[in-house]
Amino acid sequence: MSQTTRETILLIVQIASMLGLFAYVIKTAEMAKETKKSARAMEKSIDEMVEDRDLEYAPYIVVYFDVQTDTPIFDLVVSNQGKTIAHNIKITFDPPFRTSLKNFDLGKLSFLHHEIPAMPPGYELRTSIDRLESRLASEILPKVYNVEVTYVGGLYKKLRKVNYVLDLHMFQGILETHTSSFTDLTNAVEEIPASIDHLNRNVEKLSQELVQMNKRLEDIEAIKTTLQDLKKNNKIW
C-alpha cells in the first residue's frame, strides 16, 4: 500500500472520528438540556407541593361583618379559619372605624389598634360595632371599608397579607328571620317578674272574690237559720 493511500485512509478515519465525536457532543448536549429541563420541572413540582402543603397548614385570618337575626346590632368578627396558630396579627381599616353608639369608644378596642399576639385555629374575636339600621340610613358614617390583614404563621414563618372589602350595603333589604338564641332566653327571664306580678294580682283578685263568696254564704246560712227558728216558733207556715 502506497504512502498516499495510507494517508488518505488515515484522513478518512480522522474525519469519521471527528464527526462521531461531534455527534456525541451534540447528543450529550441535548441529553444535558433535557436533564436540566427535567430537573427544573421536578424542582417546580417540589416547590408547588411545598407551597400547597404550606397553604394547607397555614393560618388563615378572616375579617367580616356579621348580623345576628335577633339583634339590630352588627358585629365585627376576626377569626382564624386555618389549621395552625397565627402570630403578630395586625388589622388596618380604611377609612377608620366610627360608630353612632353612645358610650362606646372604639379607640379603646385594642385589636383595632394593636397587634394580636396569637390566635389559635378556630378562635374568633367578636365585638358589636353599630346599629345596622342607623348605619345604613346615615349619610355621614362610611358603609364600605378596605381591610388589610398581616400575620405570621404556617410552615414558613413568613409575613402573609390578605385584603378584604367589607360592604354593609350587602345587608340592605334583608328581612329579619328570627331564630331562638341566648337573647331570647334573656328576654324570657326578664319577663318572669312581670308574669309573677300578674299572677299575684290574679290570685289576690281571686282571694277577694272567695272572701265575698264566703260572706254571701254566711249571709245565706244566717237567713236560713232565722227561717228555721221562725218555723219552730210557729211564726211562719
Describe this structure in words.
The chain has 237 residues and is an alpha+beta fold. It folds into three domains: 1-56; 61-175, Immunoglobulin-like (Sandwich); 180-237. The chain has three helices and seven strands, in the order αβββββαββα. It has helices at residues 3-57, 132-137, 182-232, and strands at residues 61-67, 73-80, 86-94, 116-119, 124-131, 144-152, 159-167. The strands form two sheets. A four-stranded antiparallel sheet has the order 4-3-6-7, with no helix packed on it. A hairpin with a 5-residue loop joins β1 (61-67) and β2 (73-80). It starts with a helix and ends in a 5-residue tail after the last helix. The model has no long low-confidence stretch (mean pLDDT 79).
What spatial form do the alpha-carbon principal axes imply? rod-shaped
Structural class: alpha+beta
Strand arrangement within the widest β-sheet reads: 4-3-6-7
Described by strand count, sense and barrel closure, the largest sheet is: 4 strands, antiparallel
Percent helix, as a range, is 40-55%
Specify the number of helices.
Answer: 3
Count of β-strands:
7
* CATH architectural category of the largest domain: Sandwich
Give the topology, please:
Blueprint: H1 3-57, E1 61-67, E2 73-80, E3 86-94, E4 116-119, E5 124-131, H2 132-137, E6 144-152, E7 159-167, H3 182-232
Antiparallel strand pairs: 1-2, 2-5, 3-4, 3-6, 6-7
Provide key terms for this protein.
3 helices; 47% helix; three-stranded antiparallel sheet; 7 strands; 237 residues; alpha+beta; four-stranded antiparallel sheet; Immunoglobulin-like
